[in-house]
Amino acid sequence: MVIALIVWACIFHTKRKAKAELPPQVRYNLPIEMLYTLVPLVMVSVFFFFTARDSDTLTKVSGNPDVKVKVEAFQWSWRFTTTVDGKAGKPVVGMPVSDYQQGPQLVLPVNSTVEFDLFTDDVIHSFWVPNMIFKRDIIPGIPDDNPGRKFEIKTLGETGVYAGRCAELCGADHSRMLFSVKLVSQDDFKSYIASNQAGSAQ
């Protein structure tokens, strides 16, 4: 559409030597100048309202989730530490892989609230599980007590293994910074935690 308008202007509005008068001017036209000012102001205000409302919802943390997970990103893999009822399991530590099923696996129960605490010590990473429709940047230097490090989601209601990855270009092996999230039933998750296998990618 823009190209068509440019071509149309070039063809039909070229400067004619015989006609040198200026086109109609709109300077000092108060209604038009108010329109130019008010329309963008209203648009920005509407965008700001919905952004502020949704950001508040997306960053809200209840403080009493079913499961807490500390996510530590490093070049170029992940370390997951799961805490349930105040007891931390054995960390799951990964290494760069070409297939997400070979990467570190985070085991979580279905239909549960999970609080993620994001940490990195080197560069900016991004924690992303496409099927769960969330992605958050992990930025170095944010202190432990900063609310910007944490977010909370409700897991899906269906068991399965879901791919995860870093969505921020973080260096040479960025494309191999893969992991998986395994959603299991509540009973299987309790058995997983009770058997002290937290940290296993089985």
Kindly describe this structure.
Helices cover 24% and strands 31% of the residues. It has 3 helices and 11 strands. The strands form 2 sheets. Strands 1, 2, 3, 4, 6 and 9 form a 6-stranded mixed β-sheet that branches. Strand 2 and strand 3 form a beta hairpin. The radius of gyration is 26 Å and the shape is elongated. It starts with a helix and ends in an 8-residue tail after the last helix.
Summarize the structure.
24% of the residues lie in helices and 31% in strands. The protein has 3 helices and 11 strands; from the N terminus they run ααβββββββββββα. The protein has helices at residues 2-12, 30-58, 186-194; strands at residues 67-74, 77-84, 87-88, 92-93, 105-109, 113-120, 125-129, 134-138, 150-154, 160-166, 178-184.
**H/I helix tally:** 3
Q: Specify Rg, calculated over alpha carbons.
A: 26 Å
Order of helices and strands: HHEEEEEEEEEEEH
Global mean pLDDT: 88
Which structural class is indicated by helix and strand composition? alpha+beta
State which percent range the strand residues make up. 25-35%
Shape estimate: elongated
Question: What is the number of E strands?
Answer: 11
Ends distance: 55 Å
Helical fraction equals 10-25%
List unreliable stretches of 5+ residues.
198-202
Q: Tell me about the largest β-sheet.
A: 6 strands, mixed
